[in-house]
TrEMBL record:
Domain Aldehyde dehydrogenase: 82-179
Identification of the protein by name: Alpha-aminoadipic semialdehyde dehydrogenase-like
MF terms in GO: aldehyde dehydrogenase (NAD+) activity
Family of this protein: Belongs to the aldehyde dehydrogenase family.
Superkingdom of this protein's organism: Eukaryota
Pfam family name, one: Aldedh
Source species: Hirondellea gigas
Keyword Cell wall biogenesis/degradation: no
InterPro entries in UniProt: Ald_DH/histidinol_DH (IPR016161), Ald_DH_N (IPR016162), Aldehyde_DH_dom (IPR015590), ALDH7A1-like (IPR044638)
UniProt keyword list: NAD, Oxidoreductase
Length: 180
């Protein structure tokens, strides 16, 4: 079948008589779509090729995106929770997988951010401005690949995705000006 929706229509068998292999006794099988659907979708997605591996989407690798990625940052990338597959809304194909954070991961992230905040507030405005300038430069250096990523994940046209990233760059530039 061409899509998950078609698969669910083909699984419209609500009750079907099948014979048990062990004793040839009829066995009534009920397929409940509402219970099976999430598992069927996950199964379909696992077997589809990921866009991150296709040459057309090589910009994903340029951004450090792999088949499997960690989704929480606390000074390093971590993630010990459920695996989420990012789906492109325009072609319904899986992009890559992200391991979400567990409660412990999020707690470590909050702790790390609180520690970083203590360092940040003790810095002078020009020193903070320099860090924001570097963030803006890093975004500017990856403007097109980041814009393509926004486009891919949000189903937008590429110029809109690039425009969103450019807004972040502009905000960084503005903040640098305020820090002087």
């Amino acid at each position: 079948h061409s899509s998950g929706k078609d698969l669910f229509h083909s699984v419209s068998i609500e009750r079907q008589r099948v014979k048990s292999a062990s004793n040839n006794m009829p066995l009534l099988v009920s397929l409940n779509r509402s219970l099976l659907a999430p598992y069927a979708v996950r199964s379909i997605i696992r077997t589809m090729s990921l866009l991150v591996n296709e040459p057309k989407y090589s910009f994903l690798k340029e951004l450090g995106i792999e088949e499997d990625n960690k989704g929480v940052y606390n000074g390093k990338w971590i993630g010990n929770g459920e695996v989420l597959t990012s789906i492109c809304p325009s072609n319904k194909r899986p992009i890559a997988r992200v391991t979400q954070g567990s409660m412990e991961d999020y707690d470590s992230c909050i702790k790390a951010s609180q520690e970083a905040w203590q360092v940040w507030v003790d810095m002078t405005a020009p020193a903070r401005g320099e860090i924001v300038r570097q963030i803006g430069e890093a975004l500017r250096a990856k403007l097109i690949p980041l814009g393509k990523l926004v486009s891919l994940e949000m189903g937008k046209i590429v110029p809109e995705g690039v425009g969103e990233v450019q807004e972040y760059v502009d905000i960084c530039d503005y903040a640098v000006g305020l820090s002087r």
